[in-house]
## 1
Amino acid sequence: MTVTKAKIAENINKKVGLTLKESLQLSDEIIEIMRSALEKGENVKVSGFGSFVLRDKGRRIGRNPKTKVEIEIPPRRVVVFHPSQVWRREINKK
Amino acid sequence: MKKSELVKILAEKSGLNSKLAARVVDTFFGSIKEALKNGDRVEIRGFGSFEIREYGSYVGINPKTRKKIQVPPKKLPFFKAGKELRERVDKGKEK
């Protein structure tokens, strides 16, 4: 199953006691605050969860695996996620 | 940006007190962890998706002692940035 924002908002509604509409708006706010920070070049670290880290990638030559045609991939900035140590341990404990 | 700053901005923007804003933020991230724990994947439009990836065992080398060690199989949360986030982050580098 795939969990979406609606389900997250439902949890906020149930656990925090705000209305569903407010919970959805707050979820959108959280997402937008993080996106804006990353857009400004700022990493986002959420303790107990993980970090969203920006990486600047250099120019490289890529290849379409099907047609084998080479194309140049320009330098770009990407987001990578590092899960927190706590979460990594939680997931792997038996 | 740390979680405490995220909470502070959320409180300012929404008018919630900071204690409540902190609970909302914790529940937001807690829901993602809970879903992945239950074997579900999480998809947040415009931000990205989270899923658990399983990695097999492999032989690694301790770079300090140069000793070979067998790294056991493990599971790790994996995040893939969504279209809007990807585009905004990449455009952001020009500023």
## 2
Amino acid sequence: MDLVTIVLAVTATAGLYMAWNIGANDVANAMGTSVGSGALTLRSALVVAAIFEFGGALLVGGSVTQTISGGIVGVETLAEGGDSMLVAVGMTCCLLAAALWLHVATYFGWPVSTTHSIVGSVLGFGLWAGGVHVVRWGVMGSIAASWILSPALGGFLGFVVFSMIRARILRADDAVVALQRLGPILVFPIGMTLTLAMIFEGLQPLRMDLSLGTALPIAVCVGLLFSAISVAFFRSRRWRELEGSEADRAERVFRGLQVVTACYVAFAHGSNDVANAVGPMAAVFGAVQEGLTENVEVPLNVLMIGAFGIVLGLSTYGFRVMATIGREITELTPSRGFAAEFAAATTIVVASKLALPISTTHTVVGAVVGVGVARSFGALNLRVLRGIVASWLFTVPVTAALSATLLALASLALGQ
Amino acid sequence: MRIPLANLLAKSPFPRIVEQMAAASACAEMVPALVTALLAGDEAGVVRLAKETSILEGAADEVKNRVRTEMPLRIFLPVDRRDVLRLVSVIDRIADSAEDVGVLLTLRHLEVPEGLAAPLGSFTEAVMDTVATASRLVEQLDGLVRASFGGDAAEDALGLVQRLGEREHAADKLQDQCAKVLFGAEDQLAPVALFMWTKVLNEIGDIANHAENVGDQFRLFVAR
């Protein structure tokens, strides 16, 4: 068995393991609000996640994957320099380092981000393998900025959306009527954003590379179509027949809507997080096949391995995490959950289109805090935020050091 | 499991505060029985009831301590954390005053001057009214949180606060009447007895004051 085969095998295993880890821990954070409010049972959540994570990963996941595989570190420079094996082994070490750190964090219960771990490892690999010059610091800077901006944007959107919902729907004299008017408007951005994400410079499997001018009108039309279909939902007679106050009725309607936002956030999550498992894998495969360029197109089967791993992680372990979350956040009523999921998903999809790898978990937390700032929960535990900020500071240096160390060891072992 | 979302929503202190009010209310509701026993001259009964009231006050204290323990510094509430803590203190004072009434009545044999029985009964009833209204107000907390301390729920709460103020005022007037009867009989009463009676009336009146302060806190909660 030659070295290449070993490296490929280890990479595939490590990548699959990373994907499994993402499915086991991260998906629950994204979709937990829908389960907690009772909008989805665990089983339906699994089905939704399986379909939409897969879809998001395949249809929109390529951009972020490219960033991780070739955007942060100039791998083609390294490969041209003679050593594509270095890239292959290096990226494998990245996967291993990130996986190791996640294991430690899971053991101690730290809210560490899979995205930060992988980006940190890749950074470490680049610095060790090629020095400061091979790292694209512009890209690194944008990524670091996006890590601060994405929870902030999620929070801002969550606050705005929930404030609007509360003012115009929850406090309306007739909430059901208010929903008939405003519901389709709330639903429109979901349809439009998803469509735009898929068809604007996307849809790799179908090679549909539409420009903004063509994509935007189509997305708007699909969004309107979505709204039109939703009108029937909002006009349904069953809302009239519900008991309870106006606000209670509105919550029941939002519970139905949370199914839609669950799909939305699962798609968004798949589009951004599949790269954490698949990015290094794509670089390895590319290096091994001597096909490394700056914009190496991520092969479809690599994306599929990642997507499959995520779904596997979710169905074997993730449902337990979702059950835990579902128990703990019952205070997150459907209207709050809708606002938070909508805000988080929109932020994540935008980041995916901008090819920026962000932490989906931190974005969801940001969105929930944003909704909470609008005085919508009994109490928020801000100590969790402290843990998150701490993990920001530690993750990148630690994973960078880890991956560099592993690569150094591997080089020694291979006599390079 | 590194799942921040599971820990993000902290335990809300509001249900526990509702529990605390229920305990304080139970303690305060011993006062009419104490007054009845006193008016009937049942000294042994007064001692027994005073002891029971103390036990109930201890229970209310325990709930109060739990509220405070469950509200760590880093909790983010939809209302000012200090206002919530003040509400907890005020509710606690209701139970404290009720206990003090019981203790006062056991310190010294209190002869009841003529004509005081009826106004004292009315006064005690009015004070209990304020406690009951405050109780109803505190029970609204859950609905208020869900309505983000605004809208209809807030309007209803403010209405209750208004009513609470009116009832406290009525209790004040009845306290004055009792005092007038008391001073009307000042020549027949020993000075110490007069002193003790004044203390007892003030202590019962304080229960109503604390109940009204509960309403004041709610005004702060629903303020924008």
## 3
Amino acid sequence: MSGVGIVSAQRAHFDQPLDLKGGSVLPAFDLVYETYGTLNAARSNAILVCHALSGHHHVAGRTADNPANVGWWDNIVGPGRPLDTDRFFIVGVNNLGGCHGSTGPASPNPATGKPWGADFPVVTVEDWVDSQARLADHLGIDVWAAVMGGSLGGMQALQWTLSFPDRIRHALVIAGAPKLSAENIAFNDVARQAILTDPDFHGGHFYEHGVRPLRGLRLARMLGHITYLSDDQMAEKFGRRLRTGAGSYGFDVEFEIESYLRYQGDKFAGVFDANTYLRMTKALDYFDPAQDFDDDLARALARARAKFLVIAFSTDWRFTPERSREIVHAMVHNGQAVAYAEIDSAHGHDSFLMDEPHYHAVVDSYLKRVTL
Amino acid sequence: MSQPLERVDFDLIASWVQPGERVLDLGCGDGSLLKRLIEERGARGYGVELEDTEVLAAIRNGINVIQGDLEQGLSGFDDQTFNHVVLSRTLQTVRHTERILGEMLRVGREAVVSFPNFAYWKNRMAIMAGRMPVSEDLPYEWFDTPNLRFFTLLDFEALCARMNLVIRERQVLDDAGRLVTEEPNFLGSLAVYRLGR
């Protein structure tokens, strides 16, 4: 089935300083983004797709230089797909602090001319939403028809309804949570420790040393990957199968799951930036809109005016359905508009990326009711 | 289930809902009742539904549907959030009868409960003839029925008394959807109750 076809990234430069939640100021920044479909005359059909920890602006389609480079959420975007490009104008953006073209730790620090490295500020979900609002201004979009995302992307959709209640009509919060649990933060910290203790990390200034903390990043990704899958799915996909058929009583790759995780770790470490990984996980850890409201989520969400679709997946143990229901019940408490679907899926947290027919039907049905 | 009867059931419930009131419909299906309460009565409604296909249909109808299992109770819903909590033709499919009734009056000020009357005379006739009843309001064969609990108006009212639930209003319909006033436990096929504490 054909999607949006060949796409190319665009770049927007913003020279107004951005005040960050952590207290520092980013004097100027670039955001790299892609768009699919056409913005209508009323500018009322725009949907922002926010990415998760390892995502980027290349949401759908293929790039001209590499036809194998398919967008990370291509299965949901395109003509006739739930995010129907015949109807909607879809925007994908690489978040600030990312490593796919937007200003981030590997970008030159204007103060020194050298890569920011460890000096790049820790950015938060709130900061991302503020920077995305600049992009909306740049594109002439006053109000998003919808902002959506899975996992950390869902947190951004939620934050949009709080930071800019009048600029978003619908929020699709998929496999999300109103904040991380202690267990979630613990996983993130082990991943960060893997990077921070890699001798090639050099306190975050590894660019100047011509090396990259590949071992740390690889371990971080392997750990993360385990938490994105479900026990059932791993059992079905890999079981206890050995690659060679017999044990060698050593520590080389033996079990299929080891091979798979090492492959995923190597692949990721080859393309991702360690400083970005540290910042993305910190943004996850810090996200907690109820914190300023005595941990009362309902009060925190009271200013949201968008309608919500919240989706969770049965086998997601990283962001469990229970966490999504916290959002739902806070909104019901407030009398706000919310629909909630709990999708039966074997794929754990990663389910939000899968082409599961019922899941896509829910998104499709919801978006069909969004007026333009 | 025949459409005309369903509408009579819904007519009664709609007449009890005032504009702006908050309604929770448990087992809301595709959201038909809520849609009507929202459009005709100006209610603010939410529904709870377990089945995937119904949740999808409710989303298509623009309903605030929350996927969940009534057997798990209504944890997460705050106390006294709703003016009316509706359980329409569903109580007989719920295993934890007392718990759901208690939960309805925890989260809502009023519980609206409708259910088929097992003591309806045609059902009694079927039993007398040696077969389990299949009717407008009990439309399933014994081997594929979703119903777990078979009870009568008198049984239900005895449970209400046991639980100290106050019956504020009772309407009883026959299998043609006509209101029944005489001998309701014999002539009534479907009962609709408004309950409070």
## 4
Amino acid sequence: MKTATILKYQWKDHLRSKWIIGYALIYLLLTDGLIRFGGAGPKALLSIANVILLFVPLVSMIYSALFLYQSREFIELLLAQPLNRKSLYWGLFGGVSVPLALAFLLGTGLPLAYSGILGTSSTMSVILILCIGLLLTFLFASLGFVVGLKFFEDKIIGLGFALVSWLVLAVLYDGLVLLVVYVFGNYPLGKPILALSLVNPIDLARILILLKFNISALMGYTGAVFNQFFGTHLGILISGGCLLLWIFIPLWLGFKVFRRKDF
Amino acid sequence: MEKMNTVIQLKELTKQFGSQLVLNSMNLEIIKGHTTGIVGPNGSGKTTMIKHLLGLVKPDSGSIHIDGKKLNGHWDYRQDIGYMPQIAQYPENMKVNELIGLIKEIRSNQDGDETPLIKYFGLEPELGKRLQNLSGGTRQKVGAVLALMFNASILILDEPTAGLDPQASHKLKQLIQHEKEKGKTILLTTHIMSEIEELADNIIFIVEGNLRYNGPMKEFIENQQEQRLEGAVAKMMERGAK
């Protein structure tokens, strides 16, 4: 009940924020541009998916961590009201993550809708891409909350930590996996590599997309192992399921930190 | 001190941040209907103490009782508290009337009337403006409205006049005086000693997390053989540093 009150006012605040509006516009321009130049085929969709895999985690994590840093006094004021921490936590989290998700959905969804891709045979792929974007938004917004709350006193360390973890998860991870493969090439590596890809939600999302598009050449090492091990359909189910499970870890962790935190 | 009139009671309250002991098994009683000024050097534990009362910080050991009820993860006791924070920072795109609306909805079971306070501070033209476009002083006034509009029986004011111009500061002090006459229990921190002299009956003096004095202000000044509170506090601080 009180969570709903906080959500309502937070949404009013964030949906007027120039950052959220700008974020939606960037997706709109990118998606529109990629469709215009890449045609309406799977190639354009794949490019859009690649942008999403890089961009959504970064912005969601940094925006939500920054929000916590900027709202310090506001959170203190709300905590001083007759309100329990649970209501406040979910109000704050939903207040940030839902506008981010909406901005993504509108920015990416509109061009896909008006360019007519949604009605074609790619409809399922489009829905999958949008769902993955939404999932990553909530996941990384909650990771941003965990980082922001853990390093609440030190903004620089918190944001630095967020940036580095994004860099590792989104950019360096496949390289690290390759390094492992190179170093331990003499051992049977199927299962350990599978475990490694389950640890990284961005990798899971990437594998999910590539399995759906069935482009083995772009799958990278982890994707290829996944495909080999589970086949396409089971692979999609398992990577999607793990991604869903992944969301609850940072959400639960963030709530645990928030409940015990000294403000 | 009569036990009956105690509204806030701290028992052996201890808090440590890392290796730093911020509150050292503090015992304290605050009397109902009195205005108490909390005084001490920077970093002495004043804000941490206030934050304990509000439930923002959780004690390592010891207990806090408000109106005889032990705080143990409860939150409903905060219905009786009006809090005005030191720094009035609010969400950028929220408007003044929205912020007031938010707090009113959170405290929906209480009667809150902001209109007389808004009139008193002349905030009518600001109501539709975004909080980011307001001056620090105006935001501070909004903070005062939020703290006072629910007629809470305990008021916790953390540096209430910081950033206010002399006229607004005067008006706020008059308002605090008025609340005091209505029988509210008021806790006040400020670095302006004349303000405490004007408003407070009692003084709490904290140095490095230890309670050095809790009692009538007059006695405190007399004990230090000074005329004014500022001199007495300065003397006490010097002694505390040694």
